[in-house]
Amino acid sequence: MKSIKNEAAVCCPNHCEEFDVEYWSLISADQDPDLKTAAMGGELNLVQCPQCGTFFHHDSDLIYLDAPAELLIFVFAEKNRSQEQELRTRMQRDYEIIKNTLAKQLQIDYPPICVFGLEALKNILQEEEKHAFESEAVAAAAAAQGLQVVRLKPSYARSHHFPYYVPAPGGKVSANAYALAASKVLKSGLQSKLLLNFKDQMSQEGVAIPLTL
Ligand SMILES: [Zn+2]
Q: Which end of the chain is less crowded, N or C, counting CB atoms within 10 A of the terminal residue's CB?
């Protein structure tokens, strides 16, 4: 899926004369990593008034999709915060449309996240990056212990606060075997709250084995 750009007439915070801007309304992060970087750096949809030179963000609705990471974010304009209920209803409708048409080949089987404003999007992406870094450290530590590494389903890992990668159990696959493999990696000295949480959850009685890719 391609990213989509729109045009609008905007006015700067100093109320100079209106001018036309181009802004992104749909970001396909895996296709356009530069736009992801811009969103993380706070430069996405940043415009400058040609008259007074003030920089400001064009405040409008935006959809952010990172299909491989199973991350779908509806970013609503700050100015519409008071209409949250209405927007959530619309989001649900838009989500069904995206799921069934535009992105059918992407197999979106995970719920969207809904936030207001580009600052909130930036925060989610920064958290996401931390989560990815910690997951890579888990994978490296598991490999150093001579263990195989499996990738969890990203949306499942995110919602359960698990690492995206976990050590695979040797032998018979069970939740407890996953817990034991995680325990082995933690004992090697790795500091990871995500893996610790994974180990604790997998140690629970009757818990289902994790969703892997
Ligand atoms: Zn201005």
A: C
Let me know if 109 is exposed, middle or buried by CB neighbors in 10 A (0-12, 13-18, 19+). exposed
Same domain, 137 and 112: no
Q: Kindly state whether residues 13 and 99 are assigned to the same domain.
A: yes
pLDDT, one tens digit per residue, over 150-204 is: 999 999 999 999 999 999 987 788 999 999 999 999 999 999 999 999 999 999 9
Range of the domain at 179: 132-202
Domain count of the fold of the chain: 2
Quote the pTM value.
0.87
Around ion ligand 1, residues with a beta carbon closer than 5 Å are: 12, 14, 16, 49, 51-52
What percentage of the chain has pLDDT greater than the value 70?
98
Distance 44 CA to ligand 1 centre (A): 19
Name the residue type at position 143. A
Tokens representing residue 166 in the block? 């976990």
